[in-house]
Write a structure and sequence with these properties.
CATH superfamily of the largest domain in chain B: MetI-like
Order of helices and strands of chain B: HHHHHHHHHHH
CATH class of the largest domain in chain B: Mainly Alpha
Helix content of chain A: 25-40%
Structural class of chain B: mainly alpha
Number of strands of chain B: 0
CATH topology of the largest domain in chain B: MetI-like fold
Order of helices and strands of chain A: HEEEHEEEHHHHHEHEHEEH
Shape of chain B: flat
Largest sheet of chain B: none
Oligomer: heterodimer
Largest sheet of chain A: 6 strands, mixed
Number of helices of chain A: 10
Distance between the termini of chain A: 40 Å
Strand order of the largest sheet of chain A: 6-7-8-3-9-10
CATH class of the largest domain in chain A: Alpha Beta
Structural class of chain A: alpha/beta
Radius of gyration of chain B: 23 Å
CATH topology of the largest domain in chain A: Rossmann fold
Largest interface: A-B, 27 and 20 residues
Chain lengths: 275, 259
């Protein structure tokens, strides 16, 4: 852990770009007249970068996530992943929503292992009993890191909201996705649980080092977790402000009380209010 | 006051759910017996439980054979209803076109009182087993089809999104989400459908049959053998409860995760 801290505080090495947003936009027909939701956004996201989008509700944050995932490809402009335009759902990404959407007929462990039944090469591997045992152990370890070791055999309705969300994060990460998409994953949790989850998510992410896009309206959450925070304005929205966060990692919840942390948050807040 | 409190406490235990209904049933028969004896009601109006029991013993052979006939037609109709209901339900649930075309037809058809169809069935297939199976089928398939379609319609879109973002095929989404999600809806409808199939079979037997408990009751009442008619009713009540209980228990055992 000490080692990764020294790496992070060292000057940043330019990493290759994984995602390019090229003049993306979104418009709806409302009562026959077109209404622009997202105006024009262009930006690049580097491999292994943790990026947050913050902004007022209704500014199209979630739409951005749906465009990146390919669940609803960008109608105007294009998003490219490693140079390829996204036109259909990307394979092998991890996704977690505000609602944990665990499957009630599966216990926690089976819920977490769902992606392994769908994504190659795991799909082939888990047909083999001994290979499956290895993956099961890996899933149990992942559950242990989020404090769900004793809940592997419980069903979703036997878990608290925070536990379900942790299981949902494990499911998003089990297949080691290149890109992790988080849509207000902690929005429904109480303040204390939420801060615990930030620390936990950071640990998971530092372990995996996947590219992560977080949608949130919690500025402290964005600053705590991200390398880069993009502020979106009201409709029709575009990026009105960008902050590069350079806070030490791994950080504990003590960081939330530090001056430098609160300075960044205050700076962001001013820019949201100005728009 | 103290006894009431203790009774209240006992009513929350598991044993109470067996003890109280049993006591209530026994009490019903005791009161019934006493009322008939005291008021000297003749057996051709309202037979006492003791008279019904005597008739049950005397006619046990006929009751057994006819109840097996009713059970057979009920189950045959029910199995057909599951097959047709599940297939139709999936069609309506997955295809917008099938929904628009079929749903109004289904609703229209379902509003027809099925007893009105029995004479037609008897005309086409002859009196007996086939009309009973068909009536049981027609009454039972509708709730199954509607529930399957409803189940498919209530799958959370985000759950599908999770699967799509993993690159799952349509079949995998059905296999891992659609099918398990629909199971509780199917089982909820099976409890209703088995009772309806039973009703359908008996209705058909009373109108156009020479076999089955429905036929036995009609014959008994035309012979003024009211105790035998009541014995038939008792058999129906027991069979209906048993069929419902079987599917309720199966649901509890198989869909344990749905609370």
């Amino acid at each position: 852990m000490v080692q990764s801290e020294t790496v992070d505080s060292a000057p940043k090495i330019e990493k290759p770009v994984i995602l390019e947003f090229d003049h993306i936009g979104l418009a709806y027909q409302v009562d026959g007249s077109p209404r622009r939701i997202i105006d024009d956004i262009s930006l690049n996201i580097a491999e292994g970068e943790f990026v947050s989008f913050v902004g007022p509700s209704g500014c199209g944050k979630t739409s951005i996530l749906r465009m990146v995932s390919g669940l609803s490809p960008a109608p105007l402009g294009e998003i490219r992943v490693r140079g390829n335009k996204i036109t259909q759902p990307l394979k092998n990404i991890g996704i977690a929503f505000q609602n944990p959407v665990l499957m009630p007929w599966r216990n926690t462990l089976d819920n977490v292992m769902l992606p392994l039944e769908v994504v190659e090469p795991y799909k082939q591997e888990i047909r083999n009993a001994s290979r499956k045992a290895i993956h099961t152990r890996a899933a149990e370890e992942l559950l242990a890191t989020v404090g769900l070791k004793d809940f592997a055999k419980q069903y979703p309705w036997q878990l608290s909201g925070g536990m379900r969300q942790r299981a949902s994060l494990c499911r998003a990460l089990i297949h080691k996705p290149e890109i992790l998409l988080l849509d207000e994953p902690f929005g429904a949790l109480d303040a204390f649980t939420r801060e615990e989850m930030w620390v936990m998510l950071q640990e998971l992410w530092m372990h995996n080092r996947c590219t992560c896009i977080l949608i949130t309206h919690d500025l402290r959450e964005a600053v705590f977790l991200s390398d880069t925070v993009y502020v979106m304005g009201p409709r029709p929205s575009s990026i009105v402000y960008k902050v590069d966060v350079n806070l030490p990692r791994p950080s504990t919840s003590d960081l939330l009380l530090s001056d430098e942390f609160n300075h960044v948050v205050a700076d962001l807040r001013r820019h949201i209010h100005r728009n | 006051m103290d006894t009431l409190d203790r009774l209240e406490k006992f009513s929350r235990t598991k044993a109470a759910s067996i003890v109280f209904p049993t006591v209530a049933t026994v009490l019903l028969f005791v009161v019934w017996e006493i009322v008939v004896q005291v008021l000297k009601i003749p057996a051709y109006n309202l037979p006492a439980p003791s008279a019904i029991w005597q008739s049950t013993i005397a006619q046990s052979q006929a009751l057994w054979e006819n109840s097996m006939q009713t059970l057979l037609t009920t189950l045959a109709g029910f199995v057909l209803a599951i097959a047709a209901g599940v297939i139709l339900g999936f069609m309506i649930g997955y295809s917008r076109l099938a929904y628009i075309v079929l749903y109004p037809l289904l609703v229209g058809f379902n509003t027809i009182p099925k007893v009105a169809l029995v004479p037609l069935f008897a005309l086409w297939f002859g009196v007996g087993t086939v009309p009973a199976i068909l009536t049981a089928f027609l009454l039972a398939f509708f709730p199954i089809a509607v529930n399957v379609a409803l189940g498919l319609d209530t799958v959370e879109p985000e759950m599908k999104d999770v699967m799509r973002s993993l690159g799952a095929s349509q079949f995998e989404i059905f296999q891992k989400i659609g099918f398990p999600h629909v199971m509780p809806y199917i089982f909820a409808s099976l409890k209703v459908a088995i009772s309806l199939a039973f009703v359908g079979a008996v209705i058909s037997e009373t109108v156009a049959s020479n076999k089955g408990i429905g036929y036995l009751i009609v014959t008994a009442s035309s012979n003024f053998d009211v105790p035998l008619g009541f014995a038939g009713l008792m058999v129906l009540a027991i069979m209906g409860t048993a069929l419902y209980g079987f599917f309720a228990a199966a649901e509890k055992y198989l869909i344990y995760w749905a609370r």
